Amino acid sequence: MGNSHTGTKGDLSIHLNPPSGVNTNGAYLAGSKITGTVYASVPANDDGNYADAGDVYIQLKGKEKVKVRYHETEFDEIEEEEQRVEKFEKKSRNIVKLKIALGSDDKDSIQEGKYAYPFEIQVPEQLPTSMKIKDDEEYCRIEYKIETVANKKVVKNDKKKIKILAKPPSSEPLSNFVEPVTEKISTCCCGQGEITFGAKVDDTRIGAGEKMNVDFACKNEATVEIESVEATIHEYVEWIAGEHKYHRNNEITKGTFQKDESMDQITKTAMKTNRENEDNDLERGLKDELLKEIWHSIQDGSNNVTLDIPLLAHHTYSGAHIHVVHTLTVQILTSGLLSDSPSITIPLAIVTPNHVSDNDSIEPKYDYDPPEDWDMNNITTAPAAHNYESAPIFGGAYVSGNTEEDIHVAPIQFTDNSADPEQASLPALLQKIDFSINAKSTIQELINDVSWNRQLFSTLQPQDLADIVKRVTMEFDQTDVAAMIAQVISNFTTYHVVSLLRTLATWTRIQLVQRLLPYCKDISTNSSVILADLTDWEKVCTESDFKIAIDSRMAL
Q: What is the pLDDT of residues 468-524, one digit of tens each?
């Protein structure tokens, strides 16, 4: 290496080009490229020799950060009594760290002078959206920055905060056709009959700033009138620091369904007849007819409401310290003193809208506009640096600290065994999913790997598939993951579907069956295997899907 530095420090300055994405509102889209230039001004030593700056790097870092208030009781020796003391705990965890060497391979030293280091960073596509919530002194943040790394004794490093926007999810809608529920209605402890109702959301993954359509249908068999039916979306945010938590719950949008004749109350005589029917053989047939009636009403879309998702709504997220949950509640408000108000809750995911995209047609540009006092004729420009060969590190240990400098997060290091076919195993895959930032993206990458595909995915048994999909903690991605894997299993059968039905969340079952039926090689002979596991409502909703899948398979 070169001589020790005893003169004035130089400077590193980062210049970023604007995001090339469409409708990203100044954020860099996950999966896109960040381009720019690092300008380096390196002074000479006092003896006129070169300054040893060591290697120069540019790196992308992303973290979760939280701060939570709590109270403890401590003994005050001056007052000689116990006092309730306010304290704060901070936690931080790495989301990603990606480091790129700048300049040429010869980095033993940097001579005195002015340098331009163009760079291009391929942003990992699984990164979550930047966010920041602050309530008084408590906060939660997902933040990213670009920073230089060089010998601090020779040059002053620079850093720039940036915003990342998560990649839009699959364009395949993830609907939720809620199974109708029957609720007994009481006023002042007196039974007034029952109301059966259901709802449908065309796509439970909805983009911030978009409109969501909700369909509703009911059968009022109570002697109280339905005054109104409301659809409300709530955003629940919780952040955790050690044993301490903080949360906030906000209503972000609301709508009211039209009032129609199905909401009218019935007479006491009609209610008496309904109760008598519960005790005879007509009950089963009446129930089936009721389900079909509600299904057709919802499908017709005769009573629906459109909800506007706020553009500034936070994205649904489940991390180490931060959880953002969205739910839609459809609630019936009935007349009468102390009358029940039954409701159903539907999980939602607020995501990046599909109209947001990266403009891949734009060639990467590097900012060669140097600081004002620089002479363009005396600048040494290095070749552009890329991260094509630099693997990002995801995840990290949970750490605490009082200041930013205290919080040093040790990333989880994985040995790259992708070239070793022995590593393509179920335990290895489950471990990768557990430590991934985005399980869906991780699984897709491995499916595209020939050795993983041949040695693991193509031969998965039903229970193995269920073990993989249930490991995906984001329920909204489970159906997509199941469909991705089903396409590469050499002998995908109805038993694979049943194994998933018995494992995954109830609200995903209808969509799961609809997506997977076309891949079942035995559907024309073994459809009863799946049907035996479905409820009456699920059979009604998937009846046409079974017919299409069976006809298609028999035509092969």
A: 999 998 899 999 999 999 999 999 999 999 999 999 999 999 999 999 999 999 999
Strands 164-165 and 28-29: parallel
Non-local (6+) Cβ contacts of 517 within 8 A are: 497, 523, 530, 542, 545, 546, 548, 549
Find tokens 């970023």 and name the residue: 16
Amino acid at 39: Y
Answer yes or no: is pLDDT of 82 > 70: yes
Which alpha helices (DSSP H) does 265-412 contain, by range? 268-277, 282-300
pLDDT of residue 376: 74
Structure-derived torsion over alpha carbons of residues 525, 527, 533, 534, reported in degrees to the nearest 10: -160
What DSSP string describes 150-216?
Answer: --TTTEE--EEEE-EEPPP--SS---EEPPPEEEEEEETTEEEEEEEEEEEES-SEEETT-EEEEEE
Q: What pTM, to 2 d.p., does this model score?
A: 0.82
Rounded-to-integer distance, Cα 56 and Cα 158, Å: 12
pLDDT given at position 22: 77
Q: Which residues contact 43 (CB under 8 A, 6 or more apart)?
A: 7, 8, 9, 10, 51, 112
Phi, psi for residue 292 in degrees, rounded to 5 = -65, -35
Tens-place pLDDT, residues 134-177: 998 999 999 999 999 886 666 788 999 999 999 998 778 889 99
